[in-house]
Amino acid sequence: MTQQQGLFLTLEGIDGAGKSSHIEALEALFKAQGRVVTRTREPGGTPLAETLRTMILTQAMDPLTESLLVFAARRDHIVQVIEPALARGEVVLCDRFTDATFAYQGAGRGFDNAVLSTLEQWVQARDGALLQPALTLWFDLPPETAAERLAGARLPDKFESQPVEFFRRVAEGYAARAAAAPRFVRIDANRSREQVWAQVEAALVQRGLVGGVKP
Ligand SMILES: Nc1ncnc2c1ncn2[C@@H]1O[C@H](COP(=O)(O)OP(=O)(O)O)[C@@H](O)[C@H]1O
Ligand SMILES: Cc1cn([C@H]2C[C@H](O)[C@@H](COP(=O)(O)OP(=O)(O)O)O2)c(=O)[nH]c1=O
Predict the structure, then answer these.
(1) CB of 75 within 8 A of CB of 52?
(2) Cβ of 14 less than 6 Å from ligand 1
(3) pTM above 0.80, yes or no
């Protein structure tokens, strides 16, 4: 049997947009197609990267330090988890990747995009090209609605306790990234869970990544 090609798929959006609510169903959908799935997240996905995640999410730091730690975590994650899974022909479902760095550290914190691009080149270099997701599901939700959904849902971390203006900038950062790269699919997250899932499923079917079967 010929080995299937690896598929790198990421989920993006501001905190509270609804990514985590759909990642399990996405995994089930691909498994129902006979695919092996590696479900992972950033920052994180390896013991070292999870240690860095705790630092990033709990300690105050300047934006360059934050960016360096995020990319250090990403490098370990790529080398230890993402690249090997793709080489085995698996589906890698990753909750956030580099678009989050451009949105949060770049647009949100106002850090220099050129420095982020340089770090991206260093960390994601792959056979003369850049490792990038094949598809990015961007859960787009007004920051006020995301804040309402998060209120009382969980204890806010360092980013989640930022004011709504911060998330407005992050959302603009995502919109700019989405406008520049055809791998983005905008999901209107301001809908019921069922309607959001229907958009996710339709996007995958439309691109021939899954058949029309229900998980
Ligand atoms: N379509 C939806 N409508 C209303 N609430 C939702 C919807 N999707 C998710 N939620 C709720 O909103 C909160 C944030 O969702 P979550 O999936 O954790 O977001 P994220 O992973 O993007 O931060 C959770 O309490 C979740 O139950
Ligand atoms: C990947 C990444 C995440 N982040 C932030 C966004 C989120 O607020 C936080 C963790 O993401 P996430 O796992 O979505 O948080 P939660 O488990 O609370 O749903 O890290 C960055 O600032 N830069 C990055 O490059």
Answers:
(1) no
(2) no
(3) yes
The sign of the dihedral angle between the CA atoms of 17, 155, 103, 134 is negative
Contact present, 215 and 32 (Cβ < 8 Å): yes
Answer left, alpha or beta for residue 110, where phi above 0 means left and psi between -120 and 50 means alpha: left
Q: Which token pair is 146?
A: 């995301």
pLDDT at site 215: 46
- State the average pLDDT over residues 24-28: 97
Q: How far is CA 11 from the centre of its chain?
A: 4
> Which letter, b or e, does each residue of 172-182 get, where b requires 16 or more Cβ atoms within 10 Å of its Cβ?
ebbbebbeeee
Q: CA–CA separation, 91 vs 19, rounded Å?
A: 17
Predicted confidence at residue 1, as pLDDT, reads 57
Question: Ligand 2: distance of its center to the CA of 173 in Å?
Answer: 14
Q: What is the pLDDT of residues 75-104, one digit of tens each?
A: 999 999 999 999 999 999 999 999 999 999
Q: Any alpha helices (H) in the chain, and if so which ranges?
A: 20-32, 47-58, 63-77, 83-87, 98-101, 113-124, 143-150, 164-180, 193-206
By alpha-carbon position, which residue is closest to atom 23 of ligand 2?
101
Distance 212 CA to ligand 2 centre (A): 31
User: Ligand 2, from 23, 24, 42, 138: best to mutate by most atoms within 8 Å of Cβ?
Assistant: 42
Strands 91-95 and 7-12: parallel
Q: From the CA atom positions of the chain, what is the Rg in Å? A: 17
